[in-house]
Amino acid sequence: MSPTAAVILAEGFETVEALTPVDVLRRLGVRVAVLGLDSRVIRSAQGVEINADRRLDEYDLIPDAVILPGGLPGADHLGRSDLLRRLVLAVGEAGGVQAAICAAPARAFGPFGILKGRRVTCYPSLERELPKESTLVRAPVVEDGQLITSRGPATALSFAFAIARRLAGKAEVDALARQMLL
Question: 4-177: which CATH number, 3.40.50.880, 1.10.357.10, 3.30.360.10, 3.40.640.10?
């Protein structure tokens, strides 16, 4: 059975951070559900409207990966969702990948309490918002167990490939990277 991933979008998400993982993972055969936090039609911070597959409250699976793009105010909306917090924690309890990029590590994963004692990165201007009990690493992508975090729009492809290696395997991801001229 193909691995599964859920990408959660909230009004004001960062377009490239959301769609790059969707693109990469779908190329590898991962079953990706694009979920709107509160709606099926979500507008990005750049004014791009996305038609989600469904709303988060209509999704009843525990995917192999949950992916949160940054962007503001999108990451703030994500961080205030108890339903999303429960999904992120359930994915972690099941041993799945918990991934966030840009503002989402600080503004969503931070409030969810999953960064304590973990190595993490985020958008530079939000570093001071990370929990004091976490260890900031200034790298494009940081992996700490099942947690994957990344810095921002320019690191979205590296972020997507890190998630893909966990779900599809190194050989498949290396072949895709060659096909995509990476």
Answer: 3.40.50.880
